[in-house]
Write a structure and sequence with these properties.
The chain is of the alpha/beta class and about 500 residues long. It has helices at about 60-65, 80-90, 95-100, 115-120, 175-190, 235-240, 250-255, 265-300, 330-335, 360-370, 385, 455-470, and strands at about 15-20, 20-25, 30, 35-40, 70-75, 125-130, 140-145, 155-160, 160-170, 195-200, 305-310, 335-340, 350, 355, 395-400, 415-420, 420-425, 435-440.
Protein backbone atom coordinates (compact mmCIF):
# COMPACT_ATOMS: atom_id res chain seq x y z
CA UNK A 1 0.00 0.00 0.00
CA UNK A 2 1.40 3.39 -1.01
CA UNK A 3 1.44 6.04 1.69
CA UNK A 4 1.52 9.15 -0.50
CA UNK A 5 -2.25 8.93 -0.92
CA UNK A 6 -2.70 10.74 2.41
CA UNK A 7 -4.90 13.82 2.55
CA UNK A 8 -2.93 17.00 1.93
CA UNK A 9 -3.34 19.37 4.85
CA UNK A 10 -1.31 22.54 4.58
CA UNK A 11 -2.04 25.68 6.56
CA UNK A 12 -0.50 28.91 5.31
CA UNK A 13 1.71 30.96 7.58
CA UNK A 14 3.11 34.33 6.60
CA UNK A 15 6.80 35.00 6.96
CA UNK A 16 8.87 38.16 6.85
CA UNK A 17 12.61 38.42 7.33
CA UNK A 18 13.66 40.94 9.97
CA UNK A 19 17.43 40.97 10.20
CA UNK A 20 18.39 37.88 12.14
CA UNK A 21 14.85 36.90 13.11
CA UNK A 22 11.51 36.06 11.50
CA UNK A 23 7.98 37.17 12.29
CA UNK A 24 5.12 34.70 11.96
CA UNK A 25 1.72 36.12 11.10
CA UNK A 26 -0.40 36.24 14.24
CA UNK A 27 2.58 35.98 16.61
CA UNK A 28 3.68 38.70 19.00
CA UNK A 29 7.35 37.83 19.03
CA UNK A 30 9.88 37.00 16.33
CA UNK A 31 11.13 33.47 15.73
CA UNK A 32 14.86 32.96 16.12
CA UNK A 33 17.04 32.41 13.08
CA UNK A 34 16.72 28.64 12.61
CA UNK A 35 19.49 26.09 12.73
CA UNK A 36 19.67 23.95 9.59
CA UNK A 37 20.71 20.30 9.34
CA UNK A 38 20.93 19.11 5.74
CA UNK A 39 21.15 15.31 5.59
CA UNK A 40 21.94 13.72 2.24
CA UNK A 41 22.37 10.02 1.64
CA UNK A 42 23.79 8.47 -1.52
CA UNK A 43 21.61 6.56 -4.00
CA UNK A 44 18.60 6.38 -1.67
CA UNK A 45 15.56 5.84 -3.88
CA UNK A 46 12.36 7.55 -2.75
CA UNK A 47 10.47 4.26 -3.06
CA UNK A 48 12.80 2.81 -0.41
CA UNK A 49 11.32 5.14 2.23
CA UNK A 50 8.04 3.94 3.69
CA UNK A 51 6.64 7.48 3.89
CA UNK A 52 6.62 7.29 0.08
CA UNK A 53 5.92 3.60 -0.41
CA UNK A 54 5.79 0.94 2.31
CA UNK A 55 6.00 -2.13 0.07
CA UNK A 56 9.78 -2.53 0.39
CA UNK A 57 10.87 -1.21 3.77
CA UNK A 58 9.74 0.38 7.03
CA UNK A 59 11.62 3.57 7.95
CA UNK A 60 9.90 4.83 11.11
CA UNK A 61 12.25 7.72 11.83
CA UNK A 62 12.18 9.08 8.30
CA UNK A 63 8.40 8.62 8.41
CA UNK A 64 8.35 10.71 11.58
CA UNK A 65 10.12 13.50 9.70
CA UNK A 66 7.42 13.33 7.04
CA UNK A 67 4.61 13.17 9.61
CA UNK A 68 5.99 16.26 11.34
CA UNK A 69 6.91 18.17 8.19
CA UNK A 70 6.44 18.26 4.43
CA UNK A 71 7.04 15.45 1.96
CA UNK A 72 7.72 16.37 -1.67
CA UNK A 73 6.47 13.93 -4.30
CA UNK A 74 8.00 15.66 -7.33
CA UNK A 75 11.56 16.53 -6.41
CA UNK A 76 14.06 15.81 -9.19
CA UNK A 77 17.79 15.97 -9.87
CA UNK A 78 19.22 17.92 -12.80
CA UNK A 79 22.02 15.42 -13.52
CA UNK A 80 21.61 11.96 -12.01
CA UNK A 81 25.07 11.15 -10.72
CA UNK A 82 26.86 11.74 -7.42
CA UNK A 83 29.38 14.58 -7.80
CA UNK A 84 27.29 16.75 -10.16
CA UNK A 85 24.30 16.61 -7.82
CA UNK A 86 26.45 17.70 -4.87
CA UNK A 87 27.89 20.59 -6.86
CA UNK A 88 24.38 21.72 -7.83
CA UNK A 89 23.25 21.68 -4.20
CA UNK A 90 26.25 23.78 -3.17
CA UNK A 91 25.91 26.35 -5.96
CA UNK A 92 22.25 26.37 -6.96
CA UNK A 93 23.45 25.97 -10.55
CA UNK A 94 23.31 23.37 -13.33
CA UNK A 95 26.39 21.28 -14.06
CA UNK A 96 27.36 23.29 -17.14
CA UNK A 97 27.48 26.39 -14.93
CA UNK A 98 29.24 25.02 -11.84
CA UNK A 99 31.79 22.99 -13.80
CA UNK A 100 30.98 19.52 -12.46
CA UNK A 101 29.19 17.54 -15.16
CA UNK A 102 30.75 14.15 -14.37
CA UNK A 103 32.40 12.37 -11.44
CA UNK A 104 35.76 13.06 -13.06
CA UNK A 105 35.44 16.84 -12.85
CA UNK A 106 37.02 18.87 -10.05
CA UNK A 107 34.89 21.37 -8.17
CA UNK A 108 36.00 25.00 -8.31
CA UNK A 109 35.85 26.01 -4.67
CA UNK A 110 36.23 29.71 -5.48
CA UNK A 111 32.59 29.85 -6.55
CA UNK A 112 30.03 31.43 -4.25
CA UNK A 113 28.43 28.56 -2.40
CA UNK A 114 25.79 27.76 0.18
CA UNK A 115 28.18 27.63 3.18
CA UNK A 116 29.71 30.96 2.19
CA UNK A 117 26.25 32.53 2.14
CA UNK A 118 25.40 31.04 5.53
CA UNK A 119 28.68 32.23 7.03
CA UNK A 120 27.97 35.75 5.81
CA UNK A 121 24.62 35.52 7.57
CA UNK A 122 26.17 34.74 10.93
CA UNK A 123 25.99 30.94 10.86
CA UNK A 124 28.64 28.48 11.98
CA UNK A 125 29.07 25.98 9.15
CA UNK A 126 30.30 22.41 8.75
CA UNK A 127 30.56 19.64 6.17
CA UNK A 128 30.71 16.08 7.56
CA UNK A 129 30.71 12.81 5.62
CA UNK A 130 30.81 12.14 1.90
CA UNK A 131 32.14 15.09 -0.11
CA UNK A 132 33.14 13.46 -3.43
CA UNK A 133 34.17 16.68 -5.20
CA UNK A 134 37.94 16.05 -5.43
CA UNK A 135 39.05 19.51 -4.25
CA UNK A 136 39.25 20.72 -0.65
CA UNK A 137 35.95 22.04 0.78
CA UNK A 138 35.83 25.84 1.04
CA UNK A 139 33.55 28.19 2.93
CA UNK A 140 33.07 25.91 5.93
CA UNK A 141 34.24 26.65 9.48
CA UNK A 142 34.82 22.93 9.86
CA UNK A 143 34.93 19.87 7.66
CA UNK A 144 35.56 16.18 8.21
CA UNK A 145 35.02 14.29 4.96
CA UNK A 146 35.71 10.82 3.61
CA UNK A 147 38.12 10.50 0.67
CA UNK A 148 36.31 9.49 -2.52
CA UNK A 149 33.48 7.06 -1.84
CA UNK A 150 34.67 6.29 1.67
CA UNK A 151 34.47 2.95 3.51
CA UNK A 152 31.57 1.40 5.40
CA UNK A 153 33.73 0.09 8.25
CA UNK A 154 36.46 2.05 10.07
CA UNK A 155 36.16 4.98 7.65
CA UNK A 156 38.99 7.39 7.00
CA UNK A 157 38.46 11.15 7.07
CA UNK A 158 40.22 14.26 5.87
CA UNK A 159 39.91 16.95 8.52
CA UNK A 160 40.12 20.70 8.10
CA UNK A 161 43.69 21.95 8.36
CA UNK A 162 45.17 18.67 7.16
CA UNK A 163 43.71 17.91 3.71
CA UNK A 164 46.60 15.75 2.54
CA UNK A 165 46.37 13.12 5.27
CA UNK A 166 43.61 11.07 6.88
CA UNK A 167 42.48 9.90 10.29
CA UNK A 168 40.62 6.65 10.88
CA UNK A 169 37.52 6.43 13.05
CA UNK A 170 36.51 3.00 14.33
CA UNK A 171 32.96 1.88 13.68
CA UNK A 172 30.28 1.84 11.03
CA UNK A 173 30.32 4.82 8.67
CA UNK A 174 26.70 5.91 9.13
CA UNK A 175 27.11 5.85 12.92
CA UNK A 176 30.43 7.69 12.77
CA UNK A 177 29.09 10.46 10.51
CA UNK A 178 26.18 10.96 12.91
CA UNK A 179 28.57 10.95 15.89
CA UNK A 180 30.71 13.61 14.24
CA UNK A 181 27.66 15.69 13.34
CA UNK A 182 26.40 15.61 16.92
CA UNK A 183 29.87 16.37 18.29
CA UNK A 184 30.18 19.44 16.07
CA UNK A 185 26.68 20.72 16.90
CA UNK A 186 27.51 20.45 20.61
CA UNK A 187 30.53 22.68 20.04
CA UNK A 188 28.55 25.50 18.39
CA UNK A 189 24.98 25.17 19.67
CA UNK A 190 25.02 28.61 21.29
CA UNK A 191 25.00 30.14 17.76
CA UNK A 192 22.87 29.47 14.68
CA UNK A 193 24.47 26.54 12.87
CA UNK A 194 24.33 24.98 9.42
CA UNK A 195 25.69 21.50 8.87
CA UNK A 196 25.73 19.28 5.79
CA UNK A 197 25.72 15.69 7.09
CA UNK A 198 26.34 13.43 4.10
CA UNK A 199 26.10 9.65 4.36
CA UNK A 200 27.95 7.17 2.21
CA UNK A 201 25.05 4.73 2.57
CA UNK A 202 23.40 3.20 0.66
CA UNK A 203 25.99 3.45 -2.13
CA UNK A 204 27.32 0.32 -3.79
CA UNK A 205 28.90 -1.96 -2.63
CA UNK A 206 26.27 -2.47 0.01
CA UNK A 207 27.54 -3.41 3.47
CA UNK A 208 24.84 -3.34 6.15
CA UNK A 209 25.67 -2.63 9.77
CA UNK A 210 26.18 -5.89 11.67
CA UNK A 211 22.90 -5.71 13.60
CA UNK A 212 20.95 -5.31 10.35
CA UNK A 213 22.76 -7.93 8.26
CA UNK A 214 19.99 -10.51 8.72
CA UNK A 215 17.11 -8.02 8.62
CA UNK A 216 15.83 -9.26 5.23
CA UNK A 217 17.37 -12.73 5.04
CA UNK A 218 14.06 -14.57 5.27
CA UNK A 219 11.95 -12.02 3.41
CA UNK A 220 10.87 -12.15 -0.20
CA UNK A 221 11.24 -8.65 -1.58
CA UNK A 222 8.40 -7.68 -3.95
CA UNK A 223 9.56 -7.46 -7.54
CA UNK A 224 8.79 -4.38 -9.64
CA UNK A 225 6.32 -4.99 -12.45
CA UNK A 226 8.95 -4.06 -15.04
CA UNK A 227 11.79 -6.24 -13.70
CA UNK A 228 11.79 -8.06 -17.04
CA UNK A 229 11.45 -5.04 -19.30
CA UNK A 230 12.63 -6.16 -22.75
CA UNK A 231 13.06 -2.53 -23.91
CA UNK A 232 10.83 -3.11 -26.93
CA UNK A 233 10.42 0.13 -28.86
CA UNK A 234 13.12 1.89 -26.84
CA UNK A 235 16.40 3.32 -28.01
CA UNK A 236 19.65 1.45 -28.56
CA UNK A 237 21.11 3.54 -25.72
CA UNK A 238 18.61 1.97 -23.33
CA UNK A 239 19.20 -1.55 -24.59
CA UNK A 240 22.99 -1.17 -24.39
CA UNK A 241 23.36 0.18 -20.83
CA UNK A 242 25.44 -2.09 -18.62
CA UNK A 243 23.34 -2.09 -15.47
CA UNK A 244 21.00 -5.04 -15.86
CA UNK A 245 20.52 -7.03 -12.68
CA UNK A 246 20.67 -10.34 -14.52
CA UNK A 247 23.81 -9.57 -16.53
CA UNK A 248 25.97 -6.96 -14.81
CA UNK A 249 25.92 -7.66 -11.09
CA UNK A 250 28.91 -9.11 -9.24
CA UNK A 251 29.22 -11.35 -6.22
CA UNK A 252 30.00 -8.33 -4.01
CA UNK A 253 26.60 -6.87 -4.99
CA UNK A 254 24.66 -9.92 -3.88
CA UNK A 255 26.87 -11.20 -1.07
CA UNK A 256 27.84 -14.40 -2.86
CA UNK A 257 27.65 -16.46 -6.00
CA UNK A 258 24.30 -17.68 -7.35
CA UNK A 259 23.61 -21.43 -7.44
CA UNK A 260 25.15 -23.20 -10.42
CA UNK A 261 22.98 -23.48 -13.47
CA UNK A 262 20.91 -20.33 -12.90
CA UNK A 263 20.38 -18.21 -16.00
CA UNK A 264 17.84 -15.94 -17.66
CA UNK A 265 14.90 -14.86 -15.52
CA UNK A 266 15.83 -17.17 -12.66
CA UNK A 267 19.26 -15.57 -12.35
CA UNK A 268 17.69 -12.10 -12.45
CA UNK A 269 15.26 -13.08 -9.70
CA UNK A 270 18.07 -14.49 -7.51
CA UNK A 271 20.30 -11.45 -8.01
CA UNK A 272 17.40 -9.10 -7.33
CA UNK A 273 16.49 -10.70 -4.00
CA UNK A 274 20.06 -10.78 -2.72
CA UNK A 275 20.98 -7.30 -3.92
CA UNK A 276 17.82 -5.80 -2.46
CA UNK A 277 18.28 -7.49 0.91
CA UNK A 278 21.70 -5.86 1.23
CA UNK A 279 20.54 -2.48 -0.11
CA UNK A 280 17.52 -2.26 2.21
CA UNK A 281 19.48 -3.48 5.23
CA UNK A 282 22.03 -0.71 4.60
CA UNK A 283 19.22 1.85 4.64
CA UNK A 284 18.08 0.63 8.06
CA UNK A 285 21.20 2.18 9.62
CA UNK A 286 20.32 5.54 8.06
CA UNK A 287 16.87 5.42 9.59
CA UNK A 288 18.34 4.35 12.93
CA UNK A 289 20.67 7.35 12.91
CA UNK A 290 17.88 9.76 12.03
CA UNK A 291 16.33 8.51 15.28
CA UNK A 292 19.58 9.11 17.16
CA UNK A 293 19.78 12.65 15.82
CA UNK A 294 16.15 13.27 16.81
CA UNK A 295 16.88 12.12 20.36
CA UNK A 296 19.94 14.36 20.63
CA UNK A 297 18.10 17.44 19.39
CA UNK A 298 15.22 16.78 21.81
CA UNK A 299 17.57 16.34 24.78
CA UNK A 300 19.45 19.54 23.90
CA UNK A 301 16.28 21.59 23.38
CA UNK A 302 17.19 22.21 19.75
CA UNK A 303 14.46 20.31 17.93
CA UNK A 304 11.85 23.03 17.57
CA UNK A 305 14.14 25.69 16.09
CA UNK A 306 16.08 23.41 13.77
CA UNK A 307 15.15 22.80 10.15
CA UNK A 308 15.86 19.17 9.26
CA UNK A 309 16.10 18.35 5.57
CA UNK A 310 16.46 14.79 4.30
CA UNK A 311 17.24 13.91 0.70
CA UNK A 312 19.54 11.87 -1.53
CA UNK A 313 21.90 12.93 -4.31
CA UNK A 314 19.53 11.33 -6.84
CA UNK A 315 17.24 8.34 -7.10
CA UNK A 316 18.13 4.72 -7.84
CA UNK A 317 16.76 1.82 -9.86
CA UNK A 318 15.65 -1.01 -7.61
CA UNK A 319 15.07 -3.58 -10.31
CA UNK A 320 12.92 -1.08 -12.19
CA UNK A 321 13.36 -1.77 -15.93
CA UNK A 322 15.62 -4.61 -14.85
CA UNK A 323 18.29 -2.17 -13.68
CA UNK A 324 20.34 -1.06 -10.70
CA UNK A 325 22.24 2.28 -10.49
CA UNK A 326 20.87 5.62 -11.80
CA UNK A 327 21.87 8.17 -14.57
CA UNK A 328 18.87 7.71 -16.89
CA UNK A 329 16.06 10.26 -17.02
CA UNK A 330 13.57 7.52 -16.14
CA UNK A 331 11.50 8.27 -13.05
CA UNK A 332 13.16 6.05 -10.44
CA UNK A 333 16.55 7.66 -11.10
CA UNK A 334 15.30 11.18 -11.73
CA UNK A 335 13.14 11.45 -8.60
CA UNK A 336 14.79 12.38 -5.31
CA UNK A 337 13.31 11.98 -1.84
CA UNK A 338 12.83 15.31 -0.09
CA UNK A 339 11.42 15.78 3.41
CA UNK A 340 11.62 19.04 5.36
CA UNK A 341 10.67 19.47 9.02
CA UNK A 342 10.38 22.91 10.63
CA UNK A 343 7.45 23.12 13.07
CA UNK A 344 7.58 26.92 13.35
CA UNK A 345 6.49 27.28 9.75
CA UNK A 346 5.69 23.91 8.14
CA UNK A 347 2.42 22.14 8.92
CA UNK A 348 2.59 18.57 10.13
CA UNK A 349 1.88 15.84 7.58
CA UNK A 350 1.81 18.21 4.63
CA UNK A 351 2.56 17.04 1.09
CA UNK A 352 3.55 19.03 -1.97
CA UNK A 353 3.41 17.88 -5.57
CA UNK A 354 5.02 21.05 -6.93
CA UNK A 355 7.98 20.44 -9.25
CA UNK A 356 11.19 20.98 -7.27
CA UNK A 357 14.84 20.63 -8.35
CA UNK A 358 18.06 20.08 -6.43
CA UNK A 359 19.28 23.49 -7.62
CA UNK A 360 16.46 24.90 -5.45
CA UNK A 361 18.00 23.62 -2.22
CA UNK A 362 20.64 26.36 -1.94
CA UNK A 363 18.30 29.36 -2.36
CA UNK A 364 15.73 27.68 -0.10
CA UNK A 365 18.09 27.27 2.85
CA UNK A 366 19.42 30.78 2.34
CA UNK A 367 15.85 32.08 2.27
CA UNK A 368 14.90 30.26 5.49
CA UNK A 369 17.93 31.91 7.11
CA UNK A 370 16.56 35.33 6.16
CA UNK A 371 19.33 35.95 3.63
CA UNK A 372 19.46 36.67 -0.10
CA UNK A 373 20.57 34.10 -2.67
CA UNK A 374 23.22 35.16 -5.21
CA UNK A 375 22.00 36.33 -8.60
CA UNK A 376 23.91 33.58 -10.38
CA UNK A 377 21.87 30.86 -8.64
CA UNK A 378 19.57 29.22 -11.18
CA UNK A 379 17.32 27.54 -8.64
CA UNK A 380 14.38 29.08 -6.80
CA UNK A 381 13.51 29.12 -3.13
CA UNK A 382 10.71 26.73 -2.16
CA UNK A 383 10.10 28.39 1.22
CA UNK A 384 6.66 29.62 0.13
CA UNK A 385 5.77 26.10 -0.97
CA UNK A 386 6.79 24.86 2.48
CA UNK A 387 4.37 27.40 3.95
CA UNK A 388 1.51 26.06 1.83
CA UNK A 389 1.53 28.89 -0.67
CA UNK A 390 1.73 28.70 -4.48
CA UNK A 391 4.57 30.90 -5.71
CA UNK A 392 3.86 33.12 -8.71
CA UNK A 393 5.06 31.78 -12.05
CA UNK A 394 6.36 28.54 -10.57
CA UNK A 395 7.94 26.15 -13.07
CA UNK A 396 5.74 23.74 -14.97
CA UNK A 397 8.61 21.62 -16.30
CA UNK A 398 12.15 20.52 -15.50
CA UNK A 399 15.26 20.41 -17.65
CA UNK A 400 17.71 17.51 -17.26
CA UNK A 401 21.15 16.89 -18.78
CA UNK A 402 23.40 13.88 -18.21
CA UNK A 403 26.75 13.83 -20.03
CA UNK A 404 29.00 11.31 -18.23
CA UNK A 405 29.71 9.03 -21.19
CA UNK A 406 31.79 6.91 -21.47
CA UNK A 407 31.68 5.93 -17.82
CA UNK A 408 30.56 3.12 -15.54
CA UNK A 409 27.38 1.44 -16.78
CA UNK A 410 27.76 3.13 -20.17
CA UNK A 411 24.59 5.19 -20.07
CA UNK A 412 24.56 7.43 -23.13
CA UNK A 413 24.54 11.22 -22.90
CA UNK A 414 21.06 12.69 -22.97
CA UNK A 415 19.06 15.79 -22.18
CA UNK A 416 15.33 16.23 -21.82
CA UNK A 417 12.24 17.83 -20.37
CA UNK A 418 9.58 16.57 -17.97
CA UNK A 419 6.24 18.26 -17.33
CA UNK A 420 3.59 17.07 -14.87
CA UNK A 421 2.41 14.56 -17.50
CA UNK A 422 4.93 14.14 -20.31
CA UNK A 423 8.60 13.37 -20.69
CA UNK A 424 10.80 13.83 -23.76
CA UNK A 425 14.53 13.17 -23.94
CA UNK A 426 17.25 12.87 -26.56
CA UNK A 427 20.28 10.54 -26.54
CA UNK A 428 23.23 12.10 -28.35
CA UNK A 429 26.50 10.31 -27.43
CA UNK A 430 26.96 7.12 -29.42
CA UNK A 431 23.32 7.26 -30.54
CA UNK A 432 20.94 9.89 -31.89
CA UNK A 433 17.54 8.81 -30.61
CA UNK A 434 14.51 10.27 -28.85
CA UNK A 435 12.08 8.83 -26.32
CA UNK A 436 8.69 10.21 -25.32
CA UNK A 437 6.34 9.03 -22.58
CA UNK A 438 2.86 9.85 -21.32
CA UNK A 439 3.36 9.50 -17.55
CA UNK A 440 -0.35 9.56 -16.79
CA UNK A 441 -1.20 6.64 -19.07
CA UNK A 442 2.15 4.89 -18.71
CA UNK A 443 3.73 5.70 -15.31
CA UNK A 444 6.25 2.87 -15.64
CA UNK A 445 7.55 4.31 -18.94
CA UNK A 446 7.21 1.11 -20.92
CA UNK A 447 5.74 2.52 -24.15
CA UNK A 448 7.99 4.88 -26.12
CA UNK A 449 5.56 7.00 -28.18
CA UNK A 450 8.16 8.93 -30.16
CA UNK A 451 6.86 7.47 -33.44
CA UNK A 452 3.17 7.83 -32.57
CA UNK A 453 1.48 9.81 -35.34
CA UNK A 454 -1.19 11.26 -33.08
CA UNK A 455 1.43 12.59 -30.64
CA UNK A 456 3.61 14.40 -33.20
CA UNK A 457 2.08 17.86 -32.61
CA UNK A 458 2.65 17.47 -28.86
CA UNK A 459 6.20 16.21 -29.39
CA UNK A 460 6.95 19.21 -31.61
CA UNK A 461 5.58 21.52 -28.92
CA UNK A 462 7.65 19.81 -26.21
CA UNK A 463 10.82 20.03 -28.31
CA UNK A 464 10.24 23.76 -28.63
CA UNK A 465 9.74 24.05 -24.87
CA UNK A 466 12.84 21.91 -24.27
CA UNK A 467 15.00 24.24 -26.34
CA UNK A 468 13.50 27.24 -24.54
CA UNK A 469 14.52 25.69 -21.21
CA UNK A 470 18.03 25.04 -22.53
CA UNK A 471 18.24 28.68 -23.55
CA UNK A 472 16.85 29.81 -20.19
CA UNK A 473 19.55 27.89 -18.32
CA UNK A 474 22.20 28.85 -20.90
CA UNK A 475 23.03 25.28 -21.87
CA UNK A 476 24.14 24.88 -25.46
CA UNK A 477 22.17 22.40 -27.51
CA UNK A 478 24.45 19.36 -27.80
CA UNK A 479 25.25 18.05 -31.26
CA UNK A 480 25.25 14.23 -31.47
CA UNK A 481 28.75 12.75 -31.62
CA UNK A 482 28.73 9.26 -33.00
CA UNK A 483 31.11 7.53 -30.60
CA UNK A 484 32.06 4.05 -31.66
CA UNK A 485 30.05 1.47 -29.76
CA UNK A 486 33.20 -0.62 -29.35
CA UNK A 487 34.27 1.90 -26.68
CA UNK A 488 31.55 0.55 -24.40
CA UNK A 489 33.76 -2.40 -23.51
CA UNK A 490 36.21 -0.12 -21.70
CA UNK A 491 33.96 0.15 -18.67
Amino acid sequence: MEKINRIINISAAGLTATGMSFLLTGCDKPVEQPNIIYIMSDDHAAHAISAYDDRLIETPNLDRLADEGMLFTNCFCTNGICAPSRASVLTGKYSHKNGVATNRDKFDGSQFTLPKAMSKGGYKTAMIGKWHLKTEPTGFDFYKVVPGQGKYYDPEFRVIGNWDSTVTEKGYCTDVITDETIKWIKSVKDKPFFVMSHHKAPHRNWQPKKNFEDEYTDRIIPEPADLFDNYEGKSDAVKSAMMRIGDHMHDFDTGGSPPEGLSGEELTKWNYQHFMRRYLATIKSIDENIGRLYKFLEEEGLLENTIIIYTSDQGFFLGDHGWFDKRFMYEESLRMPLIIRYPAMISEGSISDEIVLNIDFMPTMIDFAGLEAPREAQGKSIRKICLGESPDNWRDAIYYHYSAYPAWHMVDKHYGIRTDRYKLFHFYGYSDEWEFFDLKEDPEEMNNLISSREHQPLITELKKKLYEEMKRYEDEKPVPKMIKKEEKGKF
